[in-house]
Amino acid sequence: MTAIPTPAPVVPGRLEQMSTRIAFFIAGFGIAAWAPLVPYAKARAELNEGTLGLLLLCLGGGSIIAMPVAGALASRYGCRRVLSAGTVLICLALPMLATVSSIPLLMAGLFLFGAGLGTVDSTVNLQAVIVERASGKTMMSGFHGLFSLGGIVGAAGVSGLLGLGFSPLQATLVVIVIMALALFKAAPHWLPYGSESAGPPFAIPHGVVLFIGGLCFIVFLAEGAVLDWSAVFLSAERGLDEAYAGLGYAAFALTMTAGRLTGDRIVRRLGAARVIVTGGALAAAGIFLATLSPAWAMSLLGYALVGAGCSNIVPVLYTAVGKQTVMPEHIAVPAITTLGYAGILAGPAVIGFIAHGSSLATAFLLIGGLLAAVAVSGKILRV
């Protein structure tokens, strides 16, 4: 097969910055739309926590497989084509997740959904590294802030539609229309190339890239726990109505968005290392509050603290991987994204197994301990 000629690199400017923000919004909006649907899918298919955790492995598997492939494809064919394809995959998968009740079809839908999310997440972070470097400014927290803004709109919006009496399918059709409009607006200004660095299409992460990826895994594991299990926890353990159980993730996304939209200034003022130390400690405290407090309102406050603490850790880590010279960026960025999203997508499956064997509260407390370890790492990692 003859390779498509690589277009002359476009120097990223304001339009490319805008399109990067929209791509992050699409990623956050798409994944958060799934959070309020989890209890419905669980009830429709009559799943217990262990079976739900096993099914979520399909979501994580699709994402993890897609991420390194997306990095290689973006390097060869450009971010624009790969981001567009990933967005279409998300739109195709959502109606399945809102309607099917058989386990095989749920597995297929979750795998397709994960593949779309993994494609968009990996590629948009590669574009963000390129665009931030070209600007000469600290922009990564602001970019990731649009992911969190998408999370607010997706989780709270779908929860609101369900509360108004919309069926899960009707709610997801609204989501698809919004994503299609965002794609139409942003796609012309996504980069037609993926990276100017040389190197093989795939490589095993090593050195500082592996360490950064491990930290991303823990932070995204916490986010995945809130995404996939907060609604279940609030409805089953705190008695909150299923239609409003998605507010746990909405509270998390709200404070994460606020932290990231102001994060560029915060990082410049505190320094990257202090952001990791303080953020990890705050997120750990939030997990403990959300899990141990008997009142659902205090659990919402705990999830909000987790969002505030985690908000700027990952952007700082992505900026760091864009500066390292151990691995080419079109390999390093998908590598840490893959390791990170193994936490957000595959990690919650492990939470399901722990919850089935002991309790969901125990699983959340283990995550709190890992976030405390992230805080300690801030004094080790040179960023």
From TrEMBL:
Transmembrane segments: 22-41, 53-75, 82-103, 143-163, 169-187, 208-231, 275-296, 302-321, 333-354, 360-381
InterPro entries: MFS (IPR011701), MFS_dom (IPR020846), MFS_trans_sf (IPR036259), MFS_Transporter (IPR051788)
Record keywords: Membrane, Transmembrane, Transmembrane helix
Membrane topology, from the record: Multi-pass membrane protein
Main subcellular location of this protein, as a coarse class: membrane
Domain Major facilitator superfamily (MFS) profile: 208-383
Localization per record: Membrane
PANTHER family named among the record's database cross-references: BYPASS OF STOP CODON PROTEIN 6, INNER MEMBRANE PROTEIN YBJJ
Protein name in UniProt: MFS transporter
Organism: Pseudomonas veronii
